[in-house]
């Protein structure tokens, strides 16, 4: 499992690779990328720990509310992309596992994540 450390006030994910069998290659963060996540109308900043075409693991600086909206959906925002609505697949006090759909907006955000968090000399995890 990738290890998380706090550098100052920001979470950083180590380069430790996770070898799992997934439908799509998963890219672990080599660099920090911050997104804004809206949960029940409140915005939280998070970092992308890893991302694939299917989803992402997000890490937060603060505990999230125990329950989010009744449908389990969250809105992700990045200044270079359209807002994306994602389904929450799993959650921990300071982490969310989210699932993307294959909309143009989602694919744009995935592209930004991969471009900004991955050292392009490394291979994706499979």
The fraction of residues in strands falls at: 35-45%
**Which structural class should the secondary elements be placed in?**
mainly beta
Number of helical elements: 1
Strand order of the largest sheet: 4-5-6-9-8-7
Distance between the termini: 13 Å
Report the principal-axis shape: globular
Strand elements, count? 9
Report the major sheet: 6 strands, antiparallel, barrel
User: Helix and strand succession?
Assistant: EEEEEEEEEH
Helical content stands at 10-25%
Radius of gyration: 14 Å
Mean pLDDT score, rounded?
80
List low-confidence stretches. Answer: 1-19
Would you kindly provide a written description of the structure presented here, covering whatever features stand out?
The chain is mainly beta and 126 residues long. 11% of the residues lie in helices and 40% in strands. The chain is built from one helix and nine strands. The protein has a six-stranded antiparallel β-barrel with strand order 4-5-6-9-8-7. The chain has a two-stranded antiparallel ribbon with strand order 1-2. β7 and β8 form a beta hairpin. 27% of the residues are buried. Residues 1-19 have low confidence and may be disordered.
